[in-house]
Every structure is written in structure tokens, then in C-alpha cells.
Amino acid sequence: MGGVLEVCPTCPLRTLELALARATSGDTIVVGPGHYPQTHAVITVPVTILGKGRPLLDGGSQGTIITVRCGNVHLHGMKFANTGYSSLEEYAAIRLENAPGCRIGEVETENCAFGIACYHSPGSIIENATCRGTGAVESLSGNGVHLWKSPGCRIERCSVSYHRDGLYFEFSSGCRIEGNESSHNMRYGLHFMFSDSNIYRSNAFHHNGAGVAVMYSRYVRMENNAFTDNWGPSSYGLLLKDISGSIVCGNVFEQNTVGIYMEGSDNTSVASNTFRSNGWAVKILGSSVGVLLARNTFIANTFDVLSNATRSSVRCWENYWDHYRGYDLDRDGYGDIPYRPVSLFSILIERVPSAILLLRSFIVELLTYMERAIPSIIPPTIEDERPQMKAPSPMVQVTMPELNCRRSRRER
Amino acid sequence: MRHTVVVARLALLQMARSRPMLAYLLALGAIVAALSLFGGDPAKVSLTLASLLLLIVPLITLVLIALQQYNNREFVEMLLAQPISRRAVYWGQWTGMTLALVGGCTLPLVAGYFVWGNYDVALLTIAGVVLTLCFSALAYRLAIGQPDKARGIGLALMVWLYCAVLYDAILVVAMAILEDYPIEKALLVLLALNPIDAIRVALLLHSDASALMGITGAALRGFFGSERSLVVIALVVTGWIGYPLLRGERIFRRRDF
Question: In chain B, where are the structural domains located?
């Protein structure tokens, strides 16, 4: 067992830096309540730092507050503020460098360029952190939680807002991201690239500048998340680019300009999600192949699906479409005639973007109804052969997503 | 001026008491009630109501004004035999009938709002009033210029069909053919030239749907989303009201009854 060092504004050890200079491996440093201006500490031995009564460590706009350069460091119960911004260096409240297996809990960062930044620090755990950024312009701020080449991390129950990107992962595979809330970020609520086999579960992403964008990754699972209120000319609930072998399941997409935008993605299933009041619920473009759209619920979207994909590359079944006007004579709960979610007007918009100005014009509505009644003009791109007649109860979607996900995988 | 007011009052009362007017009032009231009760959330109700208003108000206005003008022919001739200027008769008739129709479209909207209160009443009422003014001016001009009743009503219906349906259909076809050309600005001008489209685009830009417009929307909003857009739309609409009325006045003053 290591020793205990106490830090407080009136103690012999007035600053964290003084305590760290004395600390040896395994020590615990208790930081008492108070304000610690101009803190720029570097941790080089595995210690535990506990905050008592929420001490405030202030960077005085001069740079990173705590830099961790060794593994197994625990940080708990502190508040960080004012890192300032540099265009040369990434100033962060907590910066992990080559520090595997660290644990950061109950910390709060405010007005920091980067909240918690991890570089080459696999297996770190970040939980119950609150990061509130500067809310400045995109080019003068950083990410809330930033992971670079740090596989196997866990990020749980964090709340990130007013940063550039809320949660950012690059080259960080096998992470689990659960129960976080990311909102009001200038760019993306969640942004990851080259991060395979990550699991995102029960997170909420809302009011982000451009929603959520994920790219160049494989075997990603996104379950039970809520993507809401990402409304703007270049906003997406969820943007998937070059994603393969992934599952998007049991999520709720509400009030987004585009619910899911998919480009160059393959072998990805989108199942048991609820799309409500989006501009476009799903856009599947580019060379997406092997996409499955199953058992989703589409309600009150301006356009359900827009796709230039061929029928063989996007399979679609047992969804509920509120625009479906078919009948169910054999009473098995599924419509007897297929539903084509791609409307003529949305194809026209794709070719001539300014055609959107005719939205809600009588003739356009008429064309859409005509096309639904006598499907002859548009080539059959996507067809739901077994559309559900009734919307699945929201309770089923919310309480049994695992079951729904598994079922849709099996059916595949 | 005093004579204009007297004529307007008579025309207003006559119009307000006519049976088609009552039917219009009741029909709009029924639509508002049905949508408010079963329409779901306010945004959706406003939206559906706007689409319906854009169709119904021009049609009813065109037909009712033309019909009333033809039915009132003897009355107008009688008025002209009195020591009243032709100008007073012309403007009084139009003002009276139009006021009745404006009432017929705003009353259900405002009353429905006070009872259920789940739609954007200000925007819809403005749209309704502007549409009524535009198309009553057009119908009045048609009825004054065309002495034959059947032809006049037929023309009014054609105007509606053209503005509400054909115009957009032509635009859709033109867009499909000219997709490779930069047609955005031309499209905008063409949309502003049709009062129904101008008002529809104005409503679109003031609703959430503007975000669906992507780059088009961004380009548009610089121009259309600002106060300037309101000025432009107001100018276009004033043109649509003013020009037919002034033309009609010239015809009316020279016409031999």
C-alpha cells in the first residue's frame, strides 16, 4: 500500500505539482476543496488522485492541466477549467499519453479546448465525466472526449456539450461507449474513423451541428441510441460512410433532416429502428451493397427512403410504413402488395436539387399518389414485399431491442 | 368615396347572404375542425391546412366572385343609372365582395384557433387573405371583360386549373428536361410569377421544411428567408392584385352596358 499525500490551498503541499514531485508508485493524493490556479501537472508514476469537495484545477488559459505519462493512474472527483487554445498543441483538461489502463471518473471540465484526450492509451475507462466546451467557433475548439490509437476503452455515462466533436475516436478499436449524452456540439456529436468492432449503446445525440458521422470502420454495433433534433441544411442523424459488417438496431431517429445517410457501406443491417418526423428517413447512395432494412418503423417522415441502389443490393422487409396504402386480406398482419418507399418526386429531387421548391405542390402529391396506385414510372429499386400493417408497439421497440436485433439477424 | 362605401356595403351584404358563401364558410370550418381534432401534432395540422388552403381558397374565390358578378348584372346596371361615378361602382363592388370572402376564409381559421389552438394561425390567415385578394382581383377582371356568363365561369376555372395544377406540372416536366442546366434562378422567378407558388414557397421557407432544401435552401435563404423575401413576395402579390384591377377598371369605364 502506498502513502497518502494531502493537497489543499493552506497545506504544506499547496499544489498538485508539489505533491506529485514527492509521490511514489501506488500513492494516493487527496486534493482538498478550493481553487488551484495555474495547474499544469505531469504524472509519471501510477498514483490515484482523489478530489475532496470538488476542487477546481485551473489552467489559466496556459495549456494542458494534467498530463498522464504512465499507466494505471486514477483520477476522481475534480473539476477542470480554462486550458486556453493553441493551434500548435492540443490543450486538454486531462491528457493521457502512452498511459494504458487509466481510470477517470466523476470529473468535470469547463471551458477547455479538449476535455479528455487519450493518445496510445489502451484500456482506459472514462465514466461519469461532464465536459462542457467553449462553444466558440469550430476552428478554435477541440473535442470533448478524444481517443487516438487507444483500443479497448470504455466510455460510460459521460455528458459532452459545446465542443467541436462530442466524442471522437480514431484508430481505437474494440471500445464500448454506453449511456453517454452528446449535445450542442459544433460539428459532430460522435465522430469516429478507422475504429473497428466498437459498440455504441444507449447514447443520446441531439442538437449537434452536423449530427453523427462514422466512417471507414467495420463490425460496428449501434444499439438503442437516440439521434434527435439534428436539423439543418447539412445535418444528419447518422452518417455512415464506408462502414461494413455493422448493425444499427433499436435506435430512434427523430426530427433529423436526414435520419440515416449511407454511402459506400456494405453488409450492414438497419433493423428495428424508429424513424419519426425526419426530412428523409433513410438515404442509401453510392455503392452500398448488402444493406438490410428490416422491421423498422417509419412515421411522419417527409420522404421515407431515397436510394439509387439496385434492388439486389438493398433488401427491405417487414417494416412499418405510415405511407403504405395496401390491404391485408389473409389477416397475417402483413400487407399483401409490396410497398415502394422511393417516391418519384424524391428521385427528381436527387437529379434536380432545386425541384425541392415544388415540395407540397398539388401536382407533386398527385404524382406520388398515382405512382403508389399504378407503379409504372419509377424502376423498382427498393421494395418491401412484406410491409407490416400496424406499427409495432413502442414498448416492444424500447424494452426488447436485443430480441428484435437478434431476430432480424436470424432472418437475414 | 362615400358612394364607394355605400356600394361596397351593399355588395358585402349581398355576398355574405348568398348560399354558396355559407357553404364555403361551413366547409372550411369543417376542414379546420376535422384537422384540429384528428390531425395530430400542430406542425402537421398547419402543413395539411396550408396545402388545402392553397387549393381551395383560389378555386372558391374565383368561382364565387365571377358568379356573383354575373348574377348581379341587373343590379350593377341599376346602380349605373344613378348619379354615381362608374369608378365608385367598380371599386365598391370589388371591395364588398372581396371583404365577404376574406371574412369567409379568416373566420373559420381564427375561430378554430380559439377553440383548438393547434396551428400557426397568423401565417395561415395571411396566406388565406393574400390568396383571396389575388384571385378575387383576377376573377373580377375576367367577369368584367367577358360578357358571356358561361364563358366567364369557364375561364375562371381554367385560371384555377392553370395556376394550381398545370403550372407546376409544366415546371416538373421542364425541370426533368433541363436537368443539366443551371435552372435555379429561372425556377425561382417562375415560381414567384404564380401567386399560389409564391405563397407556397414563402410558407415552405417559414416552416421546418426549409432545412430539406440543402444547397438550394442555403442559396435561397440568403434571398428568400430574409425580410427582403417578404418585400419581393409582397411586390409580386401587389402586382397580381393591382394589374387586373386597373385593367378591369379601364374596361369597365369604357364598356357599353
Answer: 2-254
